[in-house]
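User: Quick one: structure for sequence A, then sequence B.

Assistant: Sequence A:
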Amino acid sequence: MRAMSSEVPDTKPSGRRARRVAARHWLAIVLVVLAVIFVVQNTVRHEVHLLWVSVEAATWVVLTVIFLVGVVTGWLLGRRRR
């Protein structure tokens, strides 16, 4: 007769991994708080001219659009071709 094993697989993440995930979450929280502060402090509207188009928008909107254009450009130029 064989006794049943009461071994339960360890479902807890190792201490090192748990700290790494927690640090990532804290960094994300800090970045979101900084982004909210940036938006609140940059609500002044500015007129932006590009070729024949003029647009008036809040500073944070203009800077966000410029940032996204940079991210897309970097992604397109950084892709490896096979």
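Sequence B:
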Amino acid sequence: MRWQGRRGSVNVEDRRGQRLRRGAPIGCGGLLLVLLVGWLLGADPRQLLMLLSESGGGGSVSTEVSAPGGQPADQLGEFASIVLADTEETWRSVFSGTGQEYHEPRLVLFTDAAESACGFASSAVGPFYCPADGKVYLDLSFFTELSERFGAPGDFAAAYVIAHEVGHHVQNLLGISDGVHQMQQRLSEGEANALSVRLELQADCLAGVWGHFADRERQLIEPGDFEEGLAAAAAIGDDRLQRLTRGQVQPESWTHGSSEQRVEWLRRGLASGDPSSCKTFE
């Protein structure tokens, strides 16, 4: 990707260097372990965070700050800021085209754990979006995990992760997320999981919409970049993660979709650049 030298976003909170300490054990059989296993199995981070909060979370939180917040100065942090800024350009344009105003999300960079309006979260949950505060939370070490453990290296693969979470913000602004969560409360676990899959696949497609504009309007994309993103989508499909952790695939427990599904919907967004093509609920 041709990202160097471009404008970074002002909507970045760099909390790296902050340490969060729980005032008491997390309890409930070690919910951080549950978060880790849930992420590996493709569980919805929002549901896990709610579970963590409702359990009491293990007491009060105290924060020690060993580094100031603000704009990141390192290369990886700068990359995340620039990708976020480019998603802002895309979605401002898309929303403006339909007479709407795009309210930009904030990106929180953290190390190991973060406190959000959705609750306390370990980096084990992976990147996540919290609709309650409109923020994307990202431990940048996830990019190393994506590259080294899951075999999906590259700038665009990392950018796809950020764009996917921004896709959840778009869903939140459009009321899609609320509608899905309300429906899930009236459905069986299997039916609720199926809706989670559709929501996640739509976020993949919306990430592809950003990629389309980044290529056509701003020429950020280099040969092989889209292939990196598609490889990343395949690497974190529910079926592949379940084979890695369980040794077997259980489609009824999927929440994000199979590798094939994730690749297909990301590809649709990349090809069309049109959010209306992301009709995963039809």
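The longest strand covers residues 18-22. The radius of gyration is 18 Å.

User: Thanks, that's what I needed.
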